[in-house]
Amino acid sequence: MRSTQPMRVAPPVLPERLEDMIPLEQALGLAQAFEQPVREYRFAGGEAAGMALEKTEYRACVFKGCRFTGAVFANAWFQNAVLEDCDLSGASLIDATLQKVHFARCKLTGANLSGAALSDVTFADCVAPDAAFSETKLKNVLFVGTDLSGAAFWDVRPRGTFRFSECRLVRAEFAHTSLNGQDLTTCDLSGAAFSDGSELRGARVTALQACELAKLLGVIIE
Question: What's the pTM value of the predicted model, to 2 decimals?
């Protein structure tokens, strides 16, 4: 059962009606060519694999079943956005800004969010193995039921709520990223790596997890 602790994350705010007449590829092309935000659109399906979309903006948009594999969203801005069943494998969101964004059942294998600023963002039931969160700024960010196997959390700067619930953190790497206050009892931490163990100070784990973590940190339990 997932934690019943309140999740203080503001949801995306969307208008009652969204436009849906322009195909995804056309809307993204116009956003890039004219440097104008894509605003209040709903996209169902569409192909944007490998597109260069640096510095593009998306406000109050819904993306369902869209394919963004290998797309480059460096310095892009998503505000009040919902992404459902989308594929962002290998996508680059380096230095992007995400505000009030909800990812549901998305694939983010190898996605790069290094240097990005995330506030009020939820990853629910996503698959994100080997995703990169290097120097990412997290403010009110929740990972719920998400596979983060092999993901790298290096020098992450959390503010406000930052929590994992029922996540796979198998072989995930935490370097200079504090987990203080985290309840990790519902997560799989098998093979997780830490720079010196200080990242775990103040985290809540089960007795079984503590034994496994002690082995990783070189602690001998007799």
Answer: 0.91
